[in-house]
């Protein structure tokens, strides 16, 4: 695929430029340009055209250097090779002389050696004798070489020379070996062992140098043997070290396992201590409740201060003693509990100790230390009450009587009160009656602790039961389990259980529909909000990755949706790495709905990327999805992904350049319509279905990017103010200032300097049948003229296309730097002129002059082509191409009235050639109009032409009637055709009859039953008439 080749080439270019392989990159630039892959060379062009990297003065200095031509280099190479051969020959002679001198010197020094070197001399003598014996052995003793051995050696030498690249030496060797055919050889190493072995033995036995070499080889073998032994010893030591390291690793592993076990034990101990802390806290709350009840009792006793002192002194003294004892026991128990809690807190995890200790100290300091003071004060108040009671007067007797009943009840309670071992109060074995308000706080604390404990147990029970419950719930009701699953995933402490529940969440429904997928996705988003980024990355995203290759596309679609909706709840670096990789794999999916979802979610993902490091990768995915064979994927890409990438990347100019390059590349890679060089068909391309689809989609993408181009053009305007009203953004005065070259405006000039010329090149490659692509180009041109305004259409667009079709145009509103490129669009040859009229003229008529503001100019231009041009020789040569352009213009209904007005002028003209052209033009445009237009405009014109006295005009109208009969089955139209054909036949002209038969014969396969009967009747009558004429001729 083009996108994949482009991605690989981009990787290579990035590597070459980053590693500073500039020569390789420069060579790659030329290779890409030679192959026509301009889109792949965009970045290389920008790099090598940057004056910061390559200063102009340095380049000019390099250009001034002399460059050797290939012929001189070849001559120098041959001279050097010849010189090298001579030097090699002289070197061999010198080596032979040196060897002879060494031999003579050795013989002379053997006589003068002293006794200290006797042993070595004996060894040398023995070696010399051995060599002498071997040299004395004649070659004949080894036997003559066989023919196959000689051939094997010759072929081996030949192969070596060829592999080494010595081709001239190989040719010489061929010439010297005349008695053997060196081309016939098996070419395996087994062919030459015997011959090589024989020559090797002969070499060892015939030279002193060989003996020295053998001794040297023996010494080297001895050294190698010692090295081998040393290496073996080193290997053994390494093996021992490896075993020792393995033992240490095993010991470390065991110690690590022991440490992990110890860690788990400590964690369990921490959990136990936490539970103990909770239990101590609960007991502390119980003590607080008991102290509160004690205070209430003291307050109740205080209310009995009006009771007679003589009756109650003994009772109060006993009660006070009991209360003091109970208060002291409670204080001791509270201190012991406080000491236990502090010890438990210190034994917990260091991170939790400070927080727990702070909580305990707050509760103990504020609750425990204050209580004894309050109780003691209450006891003091009670003693004061005893002293006040005897002094009460008779005026309080009524009040004392009213209070006597509750006081007696309290006294009776006191009489039956005993103290248990824990400091609690009992009344006949039961707890004393306590006020409901005093117990509310204690009950709430108890309920809270019990609720927490029950909550953890409930989560555990829920996590264990859900995987067994889900399969037995109806599919349409399983989404009702989502709150339970989410609660269990969020609150369960075990990660493995959470992974299992998350798997159940993603696989809740085997093949979820759109509504069910959205429900599951909403649950996942809510869960991601609650659990945070880390758990979303470690628990939810792995489930996405596991489902990416699922056999059901509904599940893969769920993965695609999760990429766009969960990306907000993960870290930024995960979005452009893992999630982008998931999207990239989904783009390659075989299901259309998956690729569509991937395009949609990629558009949602872009705004969350932390940077633009992955821009080129995303742009590549955009072009891949844009050229997708599915229309749904293309629509989603054009509507959502393309605008998102332009807004995110802010690289509109780069996207537009790559888009135009892809368009031209898709058409240029197609084969030509004809292989005859120089013909017009050799310039046109045969588009395949894939290429036609790609070009159509890219033209649609270009139309989508036009508003963004206009926005960027307005933002980068170099002038102080831009008019606001739509349609007047670019005035004539502004265009004139820009043409003077005072300022630069790249965003504005791209459209007419790069885009329009490339579109014209594309149009010149399309054959006549590619009306859909021309129609798409026309829509783009109309949109450009509408958005950029009337002045831009008149002074920029129209002159460019007028030059492209070969007409003269005013280029004063275009910058001088672009004149050469615009003038290069003018056709220079007859073939180019015909190609321009056939390919560019239809688009200019419909897309440039077809704008609402140019209708009058379009009418005048067509009148010049059809009416005034009918008498010119140049227009007559391109009559067929002009008719094709008018036919394409007829595909737009708004131009029908104007075209038929001009045609009627041609019909009523006195020029015969113009009438024939009118008939031919009507024949061409009939397939592109409806029955109403045919009845009201075409048939009256043809009837008028059919009644003309000129036979050429009449016969031309007959052919046009046949085209009408071929394309319409309306009864009224058929009746009019029959009447006119009868009129032609009534003339009795043989040529007219033949013309009628030919015209109606073409319409037979597409006509109605009524018209076919008429055609058969006409043929029968014509045949009978011809037979009667032939009979009369025979009789005569």
UniProtKB/TrEMBL annotation:
Region (Disordered): 379-404
HEAT repeats: 579-613, 938-976
Coiled-coil region(s): 210-290
Domain of life: Eukaryota
GO cellular component, one term: recycling endosome
PROSITE patterns: HEAT_REPEAT (PS50077), LISH (PS50896)
PANTHER family from the UniProt entry: RAB11-BINDING PROTEIN RELCH (PTHR32059)
Descriptive protein name: HEAT repeat-containing protein
Organism: Trapa incisa
Native organism taxonomy: Eukaryota, Viridiplantae, Streptophyta, Embryophyta, Tracheophyta
